[in-house]
Design goal:
- This protein has 13 helices and no strands.
- By secondary structure, it is mainly α.
- The protein has two domains: about 160 residues, no CATH class; about 70 residues.
- The longest helix has 19 residues.
- This is URB1 C-terminal domain-containing protein.
- One of its GO terms (cellular component) is nucleolus.
- Pfam families: NopRA1.
- One of its GO terms (biological process) is maturation of 5.8S rRNA from tricistronic rRNA transcript (SSU-rRNA, 5.8S rRNA, LSU-rRNA).
- It comes from Hirundo rustica rustica.
């Protein structure tokens, strides 16, 4: 599991700052249907205007980020290629959430320690959820995820982002925050790497201890049981 110190790779090595045209060999770009499929939205000329807001809204960004958890190195390379291209288009876009999405991509980039790094599925799900939440300023979790983003320059790939802040929240909407993180934990647990990510922070012990404590009401017990069964 990669480390999470600030800085990340050098720009010469970092996937999100690689030239999209040189990100992987031309031969693989031409012959792989999967790569052609993933890169299609950004496969036109540099003058092509991409609807960045729509790309996020329909969860195409989330799908691309999820591909970073693929065990197939070519699929991950294709996803990095699309992210690099999307970021370039996003810099020239003009809509309200642009700067927050750029900050999110920068946080992801700064946590990458080696080229074509495989993410755990849990972390890619978190990034996808945050990207969607950024488009929903009317919801309570919009404030929480933005506050977390602004206080972190990089995504620590060894940890579930914001787990303790949300699970032990003293906010008036603490139940909303706890349910959000529990839902994420349940849906993000896909393989042994996700389990190891949770175990590193002793998340299972934390949830079980809370489940059996007097502080856990019946509603919270039901949520915890449903999300982590």
């Amino acid at each position: 599991m990669p480390g999470g110190s600030a800085g990340g790779c050098s720009l010469a090595q970092d996937p999100l700052h690689s030239s999209p045209l040189n990100f992987f060999p031309l031969k693989s770009r031409e012959q792989s249907p999967r790569l052609r499929c993933v890169r299609f939205p950004f496969g036109q000329t540099a003058e092509c205007v991409v609807a960045c807001h729509k790309f996020v809204e329909v969860n195409a960004l989330g799908l691309t980020v999820a591909a970073l958890s693929s065990y197939d190195s070519n699929m991950r390379a294709a996803a990095y290629f699309v992210l690099a291209s999307f970021r370039g288009h996003l810099e020239g876009a003009r809509f309200r959430e642009r700067s927050q999405l750029l900050y999110l991509l920068d946080a992801v980039q700064n946590g990458i320690r080696q080229p074509n790094l495989r993410f755990t599925f849990s972390l890619t799900l978190y990034v996808a959820r945050v990207a969607q939440q950024i488009l929903k300023p009317e919801e309570h979790m919009y404030i929480k995820v933005n506050r977390f983003l602004l206080s972190h320059q990089y995504l620590d790939l060894r940890k579930v982002p914001g787990f303790f802040q949300l699970f032990y929240s003293f906010d008036f909407e603490y139940k909303t925050e706890r349910e959000w993180i529990l839902r994420f934990l349940g849906e993000g647990l896909r393989d042994k790497h996700c389990y190891e990510l949770y175990d590193y922070q002793r998340i299972f012990q934390v949830v079980l201890s809370f489940f059996n404590s007097p502080l856990c009401d019946e509603g919270s017990q039901t949520v915890a049981a449903e999300r982590l069964r």
